[in-house]
Amino acid sequence: MKLFGLLSILSVCFAFSPHPLHLTVAEAHWKKETKSLEISVKLFYDDFENALEEKNKNPVYLCPDSLNNQRDYIESYFRNEFQLTINEKIAGFEIVGYECENELVYVYLEYRNISKIKSIEINNTLLFESFLDQTNLMHLHINDISKTLLTQPSSPSAEVEFQ
Asked: Are 135 and 152 in contact (CB under 8 A)?
């Protein structure tokens, strides 16, 4: 019974402390029929809010997300910190939206008019200005091939080729 009580106290303490992991995870799916690359990027909302506040010098509240009223801040931040080069050509994206779920915010991007993907290079520096131990993962699902790219402050870009 004492162990259960101790575990309960520890779990409550950790629930209100900052998370020890600084990570973003992006999932990218190429849709051949619509010639688009759809990406969802998952970030801890408190880290992301702090980064947006530092950049814009204004308080930013992403959640609740029902109005999507921080879209301009998010788009500006992503344009500076998340760039893809597809088939050796810098690609532009559209922000489809964002939503909050528990302690996470999901940002949805779409790259259009991509008829074939031969190579992808990512320069992903999301939250690097805030955390020296930040890690950003990107899971790519192109045709029937899945690859994962990793960026960190010491190596902010990564690339992969598809045959």
From this structure: yes
